[in-house]
Structures are given as structure tokens and as C-alpha cells.
Amino acid sequence: MDTMTNDTSIMALFEIFFSCQKVLLHSLDYREIKFSRHQIYTLLALGSRESMTMGRVAESLAASREQATRVVASLVEEGYVERFYDETNRKRVYVRLTSKGRIFIEKEKDYVKHQLEARLAHLSDAELDEFLTSISSLKAILKKVETVDK
């Protein structure tokens, strides 16, 4: 990839990141949310998986393990998340949503879905098809890029 294409791609990713963040975060029901941004990100990340290691939580927050531990501790205290240990390696700590956390995430996902449906209703059928195709392609490509260094 030449430098010009590389620079354009990087800038496009930043723009996409901030646009996605803006659309999704502005679609949440803030009347019901009493969490910090890191807490919301943690709950959303856990809502898409069965469980995560604390290292993976830190990675998803782009934060240190210490910061992730503080975020998770507050969510455990509130009853939205629980910690558990790998039976074969007690040093490995996992976290997962509790039933209270799952109910919260499902409620927020439903609210966001309705908010986004209203926003997407302003697109033409052709624009909506292009959006859905593009999102699917981007998701698949980003998954490949994400795993290159692992």
C-alpha cells in the first residue's frame, strides 16, 4: 500500500471511529444510565460475549489493567458484573454480566435499535442497502486486521 493510500485509510478509520461512537452513544437512553463512559464500554463489550478476561477488558477499553480493574470493581459492586476464575489457572480472572447486567444491556440494545431505525429511515432504499453492505464488509475486514498481530 502506498503512503497516500495508507494515510487516507488511517484518517478514514479515525473518522469512522468517531462517527460510530457519536451515533451509538447518542442513541443510548441517558435517563436510565448512571455509568461512566468506560463502564458503558465494558458493559457493551461483555454484552457481546459470554465472558472476558480482565486483560481483554483492559484491551477493549484501551486502558491499563489497573484502570479496567477499577471499572469492573464498581460494576461488580453495583451488581451488573461478576468475577470468576479459570479452574485450571486460578490466576486468570474472568468477568461476565450478571442477570441484572444482561437485562440492562438488552434494554439499552432495544432502545438503541429503535433510535437507529428512526435515523436510518431517512435513507433511501439504495442508501440503506449500501450502508448494510458496507458495514458488513468493514466488519469482516476489521476482524482480519485486528488479528494480524496476534
What report would you give on this structure?
This protein has 150 residues and is mainly α. The chain has helices at 3-25, 37-47, 54-61, 65-78, 99-120, 125-146, and strands at 52-53, 81-86, 89-97. The protein has a three-stranded antiparallel beta sheet. Helix 3 crosses helix 4. It is globular, with a radius of gyration of 18 Å. The protein starts with a helix and ends with a helix.
List keywords for this structure.
150 residues, mainly alpha, three-stranded antiparallel sheet, 6 helices, 3 strands
Largest sheet entry: 3 strands, antiparallel
What's the overall average pLDDT, rounded?
87
Bin the helical content: 55-70%
Q: Total number of β-strand segments?
A: 3
* Strand content bin: 5-15%
Q: Helix count?
A: 6
Strand order of the largest sheet: 1-3-2
The class by helix and strand makeup works out as mainly alpha
Mind telling me the C-alpha Rg?
18 Å
Taking pLDDT < 50 over at least 5 consecutive residues as the criterion, the unreliable ranges are none
